[in-house]
Structure formats: C-alpha cells, structure tokens
Amino acid sequence: MSPVKLAVVGLGLMGSRHVEIVQSFDECELVSVCDLNPDMRSIADRYGVPFFHDIGEMLDSTRPDGAILATQSAAHVEAFEACASRGVHALIEKPVADTTEAALRIAELAESTNTRVLVGHHRRHNTFVKAAHNIVTGGQLGDLLAVSMMWTLMKPDRYFGIGWRSVRPDGGPVLINLVHELDILRFMGGEIDQVFAQGRSKARGFEVEDSVSISLTLRSGAVATILGSDAATTPWSYESTTGENPLYFNVPESCYYFTGTEGALAFPQMELWKYPNPDRRGWQYPIEKAIVDVKRADSLTNQLAHFCDVVRGARPPLVDARDGARSLAAAIAVLESIASNKPIRPSTDQE
After folding, report:
1. d(CA 40, CA 36)
2. How big, in percent rounded to 5, are the helix, strand and coil portions of the chain?
C-alpha cells in the first residue's frame, strides 16, 4: 500500500509531537503543516515540507488524504469544515470541540459528507488501557461496583506561559486533562449518569480550577470518584505512572482502581486481586495478587496506525465524533456542577 498522505494543523505541544511521529512512521507521509504563528515555519523547514497559515490553501495545494487537527478546541469546527468540504478525513485532538453543540456539528458534518473522524483520546490505544478494558468488561472483576481515579501532579510554571491554559473557555485541568479520565471511565464502565463536582483555584488563583473532586454515578449502577490537581506534589497521575510520555518522571505506582464483586484491578501496575477460593470470601480470608503481563507500546504511534486504517476505510474509528462528544459532555457537566454546586446529568442531545 502507498503511504497515507497526512497534514498537521496546529504546531503546539501536541501538534509538534504528531509531526515527529508521522515523519517517522512508514505507513504515512507528512506532506504539509499549518499554523498561524510564523515562528512555526522552523518545524516545516526541519522536515522539508511546505508551511501554510491558511488550512484551505494547504489542503488545496498539497491534497492530503487526512489531516491531524491539533489547534485549540474552539477552532476545531472551522478546521474540520475545511477538511470535510474537500473529503479529507481528520484526527481531531481531544476534546473534540469546545461545546457539545460544536461537537455534534462535527459529527453531523462527518456523517453528511462521509468524512471519517477519529478523536484523539489516545489513551484508548495504550496497551495497558486495552488490557484493563478487557479485564473490566470481560467479567474478571464480576460486576463493577466502584472506581477510584487520581490525576494529581505539578505542572511547571512555564506551562502557563501560553495564556489560554489558565482562562476560560479552554483552560483548566478539567478540559485539558481530566477529559481523559472521564473518557477512560466511560470506556471501562459505560455511560455516566450524573456528576457532582467541586473545584478550587487555591494554589494559583487563576480563573480556572487547579484542583477538583468529582463524584459520579454510572448508568450501570456503579459509582466512581476522580480527584484531580495540576498543582500538587504527588506521583499519582496517568502520565507519571504509565511512563507513556518520556517528559514525565516515571514512578512504579498506580493511579486508577477498579473494584468489583469478584476482584479488583490496580492500574497501571496491573495488579489483579482475587480470593483464591470462591467459597472462602470475606475480610477474614486471604486475598491474592497476580500481575497481568502487558507488552508496552507507544500510544500515539498506535493511534496513528489506527488513523491510517481509518483513512483507508479499513476499520471504523475507535473514538468517533459522537463518542468524543459524550466525553466532552461529561467534562462540561463537571464545570457546570462546580459553577452551580449541584449534580448535573451530562447531555449531548443524542441519546
């Protein structure tokens, strides 16, 4: 098969990473990049591809098969409209949009133009997440009862040198980070029925939250909690514990815990806890730990390989626009709950 021709739009932290991976992956070819910042031309020069300020001009000039949209979420609709009108399939970074209305606009446009969308919830492509999903949904824990998730770390001060990260509508850890936890919770445990959240900006005093506590109920009847902070000195975050991103200091800890009637799973250490004798269960009996062996692989590379298959029409997107809209709706419900101090039911008006 000939390589899939790809373009990258938005050359910030994630966009630049996508450029590196596309350039090094045999199944695809980087044909162009686009960014409003003229300083980003250096990235195009480094890889020997054309640089554009206008996405429409880029698509017309280089005719990619697919585009990776890594702009701010508020710009995703306009960027995807340019792609869809030209039949260019898109990998859209999470969150899929800045509002549920915009997310559903993307979904409807994709369906009406037969343009395929993969939303960049790349953690679903992590081999440890896939293994945990198989354990939880495959019945090894029995009925899922409760989930506890922690995403707590210290973002360096320079991170906030990019102004939008500390203001509404796109900034704050709920939309930037915890949308991942909400997506994994949905992936593992099914749809979210209700959220109640509290958030504070005690550490930095920004307009957006730096710490948040979320209590959730799932439609299955299970309950869950998510504790998040981007200003805390702790080792308990997905990035730090999985070693997925080499920029983060790796620690041999777990950050998610899935508990059921027949067992429990600590992730990503993949500790599976069960009673060895099903007839001897209760706190007075010993409980045993087994380590689930998982082969490590790069999530973004796995996601890119999947996107190439999506562009070719070989398989459907693992996370399509409507799926991404549901995870966005859960994150927006968290922010609405914080603002109103009331429980909120996530809604995308698509159920």
Report:
1. 8
2. 40, 25, 40
- Return d(Cα 237, Cα 228) in angstroms, integer: 9
Q: Against a cut of 0.70, is the pTM above it? A: yes
Q: Which residues 6+ apart lie within 8 Å of 283 measured at CB?
A: none
- Report pLDDT digits (tens) over 191-222: 999 999 999 999 999 999 999 999 999 999 99
212 within 8 A of 186, measured Cβ to Cβ? no
Which residue from 162, 188, 193, 190 is spatially nearest to 176, judged by alpha carbons? Answer: 162
Per the document, the length of the chain is 351
Q: What is the pLDDT of residue 351?
A: 53
Region of poorest pLDDT, from 80-84, 166-170, 277-281, 335-339: 166-170
Contacts 24+ apart (CB under 8 A), 164-170: 164/72, 166/204, 166/206, 166/207, 166/208, 167/206, 167/207, 167/208, 168/207, 168/208, 169/74, 169/98, 170/72, 170/73, 170/74, 170/98
Rounded to the nearest 10 degrees, what angle do helices 299-312 and 13-24 cross at? Answer: 70
Task: Give the separation between CA 70 and CA 7, rounded to whole angstroms.
Answer: 11
